[in-house]
Design brief:
With 458 residues, this protein is of the alpha+beta class. The protein has 13 helices and 19 strands. Among the domains are: 144 residues, 3-Layer(bba) Sandwich (FAD/NAD(P)-binding domain), CATH 3.50.50; 100 residues, Guanine Nucleotide Dissociation Inhibitor, domain 1 (Orthogonal Bundle). The strands form six sheets. The protein has a seven-stranded mixed beta sheet. The chain has a three-stranded antiparallel beta sheet with strand order 4-8-5, with no helix packed on it.
């Protein structure tokens, strides 16, 4: 969608083919047979630093359907409430300092240790974090005095959901990015954006005039190292000057003949990316249970909880990096969720009326140390398929598997395609710039490539 919107906006003739009945891919919805409600496959959120995703929403005319929250709620295992909030008028990173100072789930010494780690993160800059791509974040945390208790009660609630990977296993590069770009660089970057409608509605507007839904592709038509058309399953062949392939990474290889895969190094190590699952739990209660729009939970199995109606009777829980739950019987999981929620909301405990569990076994790729080696460029190498471009959060975006990463991949693919077709003519820039690094955050990063926080061409 991002690639189509960008290219159409620049004047290209674009045809968007979608096998499903609606756009949105994994960020989609389905109709619940029992209630008739549109339920999201899983809750999707964004932060204020997701500048390209917000740019796409503006292109689609749906930016107002995302509501931003400047107070992020946390609940411990007993239901006690804590919050991460900004002080209006204070620049980053001072804007969150009072909230961290009053984050009572941790001791004063633990909060001071976190403050020192945050300062070290800023001093690294983007170049510093990129150099830590092969380092597990757990090692970086231990090297900077972060105890297991701090990790469990502060870093885990933020990072496991953001990266869909365990804090200790994730690449330090991407874990640091969440804090550098999301919390420390700009006063608006941490704001939590939640769609105020089902995801299907958020992605209902067409990014270009020619969109063909329920359309399945049979194969790509090649002549030598170029694609000349797309064959549909009904026998129709659509001629093409270039193709952007936006299927998920386990599916990519089935579209490319073996001899062309061998010549195009983008496909050589693609299957070495590891997937990570997400479990979503749709829950209906007989009375309100969640007074906040959302809550990060400091003890599981659910890690986040989101209110899905005005009263808080319908909620959606998420378990990211959910490998340990894939083989657990659904009844056992629901039993543990009921126990967890009874502890969180003990007064007049609500009764769970019904539930719906959604498991995405390969929801995203896992940002493990060194995973960037396996992520392909959007644009073809000199010896590759000349007019085939790749889009998807798994491609090289310098972002983990997020909606922001997906949009960036689409914009980068569109930029590369435009250069390919236009030759020497100047190519438009579709990538939106990152939020600027504010003072005094900029002062802490002085001399550490702080200027690279703005978007750079790939």
């Amino acid at each position: 969608m991002a690639a189509a919107a960008a290219l159409h906006g620049a004047g290209a003739a674009v045809t968007l083919l979608e096998a499903r009945r609606e756009l949105g891919g994994r960020a989609g919805s389905f109709e619940d047979a029992a209630t008739g409600q549109l339920l999201d496959n899983c809750q999707h959120v964004l932060l204020g630093c997701c500048t390209n995703l917000l740019d796409l929403y503006r292109r689609l005319g749906v930016a107002e359907k995302v509501h931003f929250h400047h107070r992020i709620h946390f609940l411990d295992e007993g239901g006690h409430h804590y919050a991460l909030f900004r002080v209006p008028g204070l620049p980053a990173p001072l804007h969150l300092a009072p909230a961290l100072a009053s984050f009572g789930v941790l001791s004063v010494a633990e909060r001071w240790a976190i403050s020192r780690a945050m300062a070290a993160m800023l001093r690294l800059g983007r170049a510093g974090r990129a150099a830590l791509d092969n380092v597990p974040f757990g090692r970086w945390l231990r090297d900077h005095g972060q105890t297991e208790r701090i990790i469990r009660r502060f870093y885990d609630p933020i990072l496991v959901g953001a990266l869909n990977e365990q804090t200790s296993r994730a690449s330090a590069k991407y874990a640091l990015q969440v804090f550098q770009d999301g919390l420390l660089s700009h006063r608006g970057s941490y704001a939590l954006g939640l769609p105020a409608c089902p995801l299907e509605e958020l992605y209902a507007n067409r990014p270009c005039p020619t969109v063909r839904l329920n359309t399945r592709v049979a194969r790509l038509c090649f002549q030598s190292r170029r694609i000349v058309g797309v064959a549909l399953r009904d026998g129709e062949i659509l001629p093409a000057n270039a193709v952007i392939l936006a299927v998920n990474y386990p599916t990519v290889l089935k579209w490319i003949p073996e001899e062309l895969r061998r010549a195009d190094f983008r496909f050589h190590r693609l299957l070495e990316l590891r997937g990570s699952p997400i479990v979503g739990a749709h829950l209906w209660f007989d009375r309100p249970v969640l007074r906040y729009s959302h809550a990060a939970l400091l003890a599981g199995p659910l890690q986040w909880l989101f209110r899905k109606d005005r009263r808080g009777v319908v909620v959606h829980g998420v378990i990211s990096a959910a490998r340990d739950w894939l083989e657990v019987p659904e009844g056992v999981l629901i039993g543990q969720i009921k126990t967890q929620l009874a502890q969180l909301f003990p007064k007049g405990s609500a009764t769970l009326l019904r539930h719906r569990i959604i498991i995405e076994k390969r929801a995203t790729f896992s940002p493990l140390p060194g995973a960037d080696v396996f992520r392909p460029l959007q644009t073809p190498p000199p010896e590759g398929i000349e007019n085939l471009f790749l889009a998807g959060d798994y491609t090289k975006t310098d972002w983990p598997a997020t909606m922001e990463g997906a949009v960036r991949s689409g914009y980068l693919a569109a930029e590369g395609l435009w250069r390919n077709l236009a030759g020497a003519a100047p190519a438009p820039r579709f990538l939106a710039p990152d939020l600027p690094l504010e003072f005094p955050a900029r002062l802490l990063a002085q001399g550490r490539n702080y200027d690279t926080f703005t978007a750079q061409p790939h």
